[in-house]
Amino acid sequence: PTHDMEFNSFEHVMVIGSGVYRIGSSVEFDWCAVRCIQELRRLGYKTIMVNYNPETVSTDYDMCDRLYFDEITYEVVMDIYEMENPYGVIPSMGGQLPNNIAMDLYRSKVKVLGTSPESIDNAENRF
Fold first, then answer.
1. Residue 30 burial (CB < 10 Å; 0-12/13-18/19+)?
2. Which residues pair with 25 in a beta bridge?
3. Phi, psi of 102 (to 5 degrees)
4. In this structure, is the dihedral angle defined by the CA atoms of residues 20, 70, 11 and 92, taken in order, positive or negative?
5. Helix, strand, or coil here: 22?
6. Global pTM?
7. Which one, 32, 39, 84, 117, has least CB within 10 Å?
8. Is 85 exposed, middle or buried (0-12, 13-18, 19+ CB in 10 A)?
């Protein structure tokens, strides 16, 4: 496919947002994602946000350098990852949806930053 942007962006870090809100949860995940983006920018990184909820601060056009307003699935995140070639991906700020795909990202050799996929998986295992 052809694009109107360049994707040699190893200086970018991708943050995966919370997706759809649920009453009683998810607002705190948007706050975490926004603070993560702000800190990454303060450290000199460019930021990529993947989220699809128009009610979130993280999807404001001026919050990140690149916004992918798309569903949070393994396939979509991998498509963006392969196209953008970011320095790494932070799934641990977004809550359940990114947590659900963290191990799949890890198995696909995605450089996961922050909480390790193994630790996320252990925390998710309620047995």
1. buried
2. 22
3. -60, -45
4. positive
5. strand
6. 0.87
7. 39
8. exposed
Geometric angle at alpha carbon 57, from 51 and 62, rounded to 5°: 90
* Phi (first) and psi of residue 51, to 5 degrees: -165, 160
The span from the CA of 89 to the CA of 106, in Å, is: 10
Q: What is the DSSP letter of 14?
A: E
Task: Give 3-state DSSP helix, strand, coil % of the chain, rounded to 5.
Answer: 40, 15, 45
Q: What is the Cα–Cα distance from 23 to 103, expressed in whole angstroms?
A: 26
Place of tokens 């359940």: 96
pLDDT tens-place string over residues 35-91: 999 999 999 999 999 988 777 777 777 889 999 989 999 999 999 999 999 999 999
Residue whose entry in the numeric block shows the structure tokens 């949806």: 97
Task: Return the ∠ at Cα 42 (arms to 49 and 64), rounded to 5°.
Answer: 20
